[in-house]
Amino acid sequence: MGIESHRQIRRENDVSQWDEGSQMKYSEFKRWLLQQGAEFQKATGGGSHKKVNLNGRKSVFPDHGSKEMPEPLRKKIMKDLGL
């Protein structure tokens, strides 16, 4: 299975069910959060970090685009947002 088709399968599945060893890009996770109804705002002070709100819960999202996102960071943001 090619890497592109592997990513397509990952996009179609719930993000919390991805393999422990598999990584996702910041942009893929941001897209998933938007599908869940999350709202992003620029954090004060500029930089690449954004505030993310979902159902009254808040977290900070470091938006590094196409770079791979560490699994512990993804889990922390999901926990902060109650996902």
Automatic annotation (TrEMBL):
Xref: InterPro entries: HicA_mRNA_interferase (IPR012933), HicA_sf (IPR038570)
According to the UniProt entry, its GO molecular function terms are: endonuclease activity; hydrolase activity; mRNA binding
At the highest ranks, the source species' classification is: Bacteria, Pseudomonadati, Pseudomonadota, Gammaproteobacteria, Enterobacterales
Decide whether keyword DNA repair is in the record. no
Task: Enumerate the residue ranges of region (Disordered).
Answer: 1-20, 42-83
What keywords is this UniProt entry annotated with? Endonuclease, Hydrolase, Nuclease, Plasmid, RNA-binding, Stress response, Toxin-antitoxin system
Q: Which family does it belong to?
A: Belongs to the HicA mRNA interferase family.
> Basic and acidic residues bias located where?
1-14, 60-83
Name the Pfam families for this protein: HicA_toxin
What name has this protein been given in UniProt? mRNA interferase
